[in-house]
Amino acid sequence: MATDVMVTLPRPHPGQLRVTKEAKRFNVLECGRRFGKTTLGLSLCAETSLKGEPCAWFAPTYRTMSEQWRDLSDILAGVIESQSKMDQQIRLYGGGVIDFWSMDNPDSGRGRKYKLIIVDEASVVRDLKTAWENTVRPTLTDLKGGAWFLGTPKGRNYFHQLFSKGQQEVEDWKSWRLPTASNPYMDSDEIGAAKRDLPERVFTQEYEGIPDDDAGNPFGYEAIQECLGKMSTGPAVVYGVDLAKYQDWTVVIGLDNNGRVCTCKRWQIDWKQTKDRIRQMTAGQPVWIDSTGVGDPIAEDLARGNPAVHGYTFTGRSKQQLMEGLAGMIQREEIGLPESEPWLIHELESFQYEYTMGGGVKYSAPEGMHDDGVCALALAARGLVTIKTEPDIRVRMIAVGDDDYDDDDRMWTRR
Prior knowledge:
Helix content is 36%, strand content 21%. By secondary structure, the protein is an alpha/beta fold. It has two domains: 14-208, Rossmann fold, CATH 3.40.50; 221-414, Nucleotidyltransferase, domain 5, CATH 3.30.420. The termini are far apart. It has 14 helices and 19 strands. A hairpin with a 4-residue loop joins strand 3 (80-84) and strand 4.
């Protein structure tokens, strides 16, 4: 005997209703934080799967979509036939399917077919353009499916370009920009307090959905694009190394004499193999290496065999100085970035700064994402400036051989 099951979807507020009524096949929602864009995506995904259709939820990383997995599991609890956290899939009675994909992998979703896809936090998806054109868009062909791109802008990157496409009324495309205040459940006094407390450019982007030219990004999207080109075939004159073991990446980046990247490698292995690999790659050349925390003994060990190894300790202040130096070089086109390493370009594009309560500036990757490549590149850039301004640095370091700690730069230098 058939049993009726009640499924309750989140009640849409007027801004969400407007969006759904005006929607076309491909839709871009560029909004302030807490507008309710993810909630809207959950409702659209649930409605489509309840009709027996296959759907997919795409997010920048697995970590950033875990909450949405739980939300959809709760909303659809009474009609779930089976679900697998390992396979990241929910199957409903009636044939509906929801797949969850991390866009860390550019091939996510390849070979599947969907009636609807949701790309959540689209502004910080790694290489969104390549993923959409080469993998995600083809999944909509069989069923003539639709897509929703949801996010708060991060400058004028590809997410914003899709928004502009919708504004130009390109066939099948529609886009909206709605501020946080469009959500009637948000406290207007709290929004007013944020406006008073935050720098204008930050409030405009984060609460009004208007992209900042730099997007809280110290490098600038357009400046990064101007630096793109082929990997240099010249020899490396300096290396930057950011250390990690398993959760993050150890990254080694080498620059030639013109500031073009000629070496770009990353891995996750134990410390002994990491040290051996760094020694082989750098072969006695100047190296600027992250010596924060566990990196300190690694840097010291490497320096015993190569007096041109410099440990750099990351603090809030020293990281700010390092990133501002890299930003200046990128904006002056003094760095050549390899198109063949999209993960590095994505790290640069998504890297951000924010103002702290004490009036300082914090530089980091968005939550759940990496900045290992950015740090390695910044260290290499710092090293390149140093060896060009102090051409005899390696001779002096070998001749004197004492440790000297520069408190201003928070940097160990072999002198």
